[in-house]
């Protein structure tokens, strides 16, 4: 048995082979409160990574091959085989609990109820995709991202990929300050979920094509003022959209945990790497910029410590985008040159910071006044109408006094 220290409680025994880091570490084989063990949740996200790689390979094919004529392709095989493996794994976890005596929802691991729904949605979307391609043909470019059957597939993936995150979020025994290894299934779960969203919005992917780089600006200028305007709008939108896709899950993680160093790097670096792969790493330096920016943001979080202070949390929401996009535009300036005027690229950084601040305030809003009525509309004692005094008993006139005899 390995021994670990829990703050204020002395050494506590745990299973051998427990992942290091954080308080109240759980052994790889332990399954508290209906939750899968650390190792089984890690297997789930690794199988989800298989699906994700297949998804991005299929996205590469839709964007770069104009001769797609059939549903049965190697990249579809990679994508759907990942789903079959992940579905088999999740269903096996339910079955082993059922055979152990659990019944009904008790047989479903914590956080995996929506994952089962996601498997069904994905299966419907996959069957529908085959029919859709047979009737309407194979989509290319942005068309593929708006196909109804593809949207069903995306929803299914999100529900499956986010299962370990949901399980950990609701677990009261989850350590508030986990080490990197202990936090890995949760981090990968959040990263895969955000990466699916980044895939769905790849037409606004800032790491696919550099925003405001000199070559694109000059190329657009040769085609007239209108094309220049559209290109500028798309590039600015790509920065702001990517900013939200990265920052939303990151702030949620920071709100729930004292995230370990490397969290921003993994999240941002994965999104940048997979989206850049769709265009065959044509601008690979943007991936390097994402990794450097992630490390810088991780270092800033370590110094800022926004875990238990609302204002520091708001500051993190503002400063993380400033760090990320400053490194991003500095890299473009060094490698390609920036074709934008200073107002555009500096304003894009400031807008990213403002949006990050807004997200942080939404994630951790100001405290409600203690005397404020409940949001449900229930009246407080001060708001309740006073109880009227009891009515005085009616007087009875004496017999014969001013009345009828």
Please, could you describe this protein's structure?
This protein is mainly alpha-helical. The chain folds into 2 domains: 37-200; 205-365, no CATH class. It contains 12 helices and 2 strands; from the N terminus they run ββαααααααααααα. A two-stranded antiparallel sheet has the order 1-2. It starts with a strand and ends in a 42-residue tail after the last helix.
> How does the overall form come out from the CA principal axes?
globular
Gyration radius, rounded: 28 Å
Helix content: 55-70%
Biggest pleated-sheet summary: 2 strands, antiparallel
Low-pLDDT stretches are: 1-33, 378-389, 392-405
Span of the ends, CA to CA: 102 Å
Structural class: mainly alpha
